[in-house]
Design a protein that fits this description.
Elements: E1 13-17, E2 29-33, H1 37-52, H2 55-60, H3 62-76, E3 119-120, H4 121-140, H5 144-165, E4 166-167, E5 172-173, E6 176-177, E7 183-184, H6 191-197, H7 202-212, H8 245-257, H9 261-275, H10 310-324, E8 326-329, E9 334-337, E10 347-355, E11 358-366, E12 372-379, E13 384-386, H11 397-408, H12 414-421, H13 426-430, E14 460-463
Parallel strand pairs: 9-13
Antiparallel strand pairs: 1-2, 3-6, 4-5, 6-7, 8-9, 10-11, 11-12, 12-14
Length: 469
């Protein structure tokens, strides 16, 4: 089999062989590598531990976790500058190896191609999130020194990222760093993933959210992959102006994470309304980036877009998950609940929700004041239920949630707990990785979203406290 990108040792890849395809004009084989894959593996490992509390399962893949961490810093950072960049070595390889993998996905503002190696913004965020996720996994198992090292590495990456990727004159994140480590100053959707990962400094989040919601980026149906002001913009080009539901959902996660609820509601409603335009209310892989309006009441079909598509199916789950604001920390036997329901969704019921080895049923209600309350009506006996304190928009509520959990829940090692409690920067030590809270096969295990109809056995009530100033 011909290797298209000649992946480095340990690099995750997806292999495909289309020799037998009746639709191929010629015989060819390919191996497609994704620089995000190592991060997603680590996030998945940490997620399983967080959701299940199964330390044995984590121990079974511990060696794989350690090898992946080692690969990230040995091979993922090609030139040793502290950023993770990809480079295509084979003439048959795909040029771009982030999630936007088409050949023209990474462009300068004038429309010219960016050469390899390239350090794309979202990969930095995902690797940052992965190190934090695994650090928290190790911390929950009492391995405080290993956890502290990973948290320090993540904090250093975040500092470098905000120093090098931030464009103060545009109040936005650069699309990437080019081979000379110059900023690729193109406005694109990938900043939404950066928000979701938590790598963006709090004082920059308001500007990023505002920029993503401007008319050239927000089509009315979702976030365009590329600004409509860019010379290469095309509303039906794969990564140059279309709307991807999963990318828009990532932006939703980032908006909710930093407390921009109104923008989150607006974006979530747009995606859900777009779903209603397609057969079976099923979001396709990608659709057109045409501006929503009377003259254009439909976003436009992308030719050849996959439907159904798992990524797009996950977009709805991600959005619903952010509205419920539920985070399971099974090793601590702690359930974090930080809901935010829009006015157009006044009540949600989660039934038979799996939390570790237990189950819970929870009702969420949007009240007249605009707050969202939660009530545990069944299960979760013996679990600590915590909610982060009120905060203004622009403060990382995932970090607040984990800090609250660390303050109120005993870890196996008291010194680990103290390191979480007394860090100079709580968000650096306690930041929750978004994907931990999104990619759970068990989180929505047999829930029913709809009207409440539970036997209210020993209900526990609390009000979701969220500042609207």
């Amino acid at each position: 089999m011909t290797t298209a990108t000649t992946p480095s040792p340990g690099k995750s890849c997806i292999s495909g062989n289309s020799d037998r395809s009746p639709f191929s004009a010629r015989r060819h084989s390919s191996t497609i590598t994704d620089y995000s894959a190592p991060a997603y593996f680590l996030i998945g490992a940490a997620l399983h531990l967080a959701e299940s509390g199964d330390g044995r399962a984590f121990a079974d893949i511990r060696s794989k976790v350690q090898v992946t961490l080692a690969w990230m810093d040995r091979y993922g950072d090609i030139d040793g500058d502290g950023f993770y960049e990809y480079r295509t070595r084979s003439r048959q390889g795909i040029k771009n190896q982030g999630w936007k993998d088409s050949g023209q996905a990474i462009l300068y503002p004038d429309g010219s191609l960016v050469r390899d190696p390239i350090a794309v913004a979202e990969v930095q965020g995902l690797y940052y999130a992965a190190k934090q996720a695994v650090a928290l996994a190790f911390a929950s198992l009492g391995e405080r020194e290993r956890a502290a090292r990973l948290l320090d590495q993540a904090a250093a990456l975040k500092k470098r990222f905000n120093a090098r990727f931030w464009m103060p004159d545009l109040d936005f994140l650069a699309r990437a760093l080019d081979p000379e480590k110059r900023q690729v100053r193109t406005i694109a959707s990938n900043a939404g993933i950066c928000l979701a990962s938590g790598i963006v400094d709090d004082d920059k989040t308001d500007a990023v959210v505002e920029r993503l919601m401007r008319r050239d980026m927000f089509s009315g149906w979702g976030i365009r992959t590329l600004s409509s002001d860019h010379p290469a913009y095309n509303p039906l080009a794969y990564h140059l102006g279309t709307v991807w539901p999963v990318s828009t959902a990532h932006a939703c996660v980032g908006f909710k994470r930093y407390g921009f609820d109104d923008q989150f509601y607006k974006l979530a409603e747009a995606v859900l309304e777009a779903a209603g335009l397609f057969e079976f209310d099923r979001l396709p892989e990608v659709f057109g980036g045409h501006e929503r309006g009377r003259r254009q009441p439909y976003p436009g079909l992308y030719p050849g877009g996959c439907s159904p598509q798992a990524w797009s199916a996950s977009a709805v789950i991600q959005i619903c998950h952010m509205m419920t604001g539920i985070m399971t920390l099974a090793p601590l036997k702690t359930l974090v609940v930080d809901p935010a329901l829009p006015e157009w969704l006044p009540e949600v019921a989660l039934r038979n929700l799996r939390i570790g080895d237990d189950r819970a049923s929870i009702i969420l209600r949007h009240d007249e004041s605009g707050d969202t309350t939660h009530e545990i009506v069944e299960g979760a006996e013996g679990w600590r239920v915590v909610s982060p304190p009120p905060s203004r928009p622009g403060v990382d509520r995932f970090a607040l949630a984990l800090a609250e959990a660390a303050l109120r829940s005993p870890l196996r090692n008291a010194r680990t707990r103290d390191s979480l409690r007394h860090s100079e920067d709580v968000s650096r030590r306690c930041r929750a990785v978004t994907s931990i809270n999104l990619r759970s096969p068990t989180l929505f295990s047999k829930p029913i979203l709809g009207a409440a109809g539970f036997s209210k056995t020993s209900p526990r009530r609390s009000r979701g406290a969220r500042s609207r100033s």
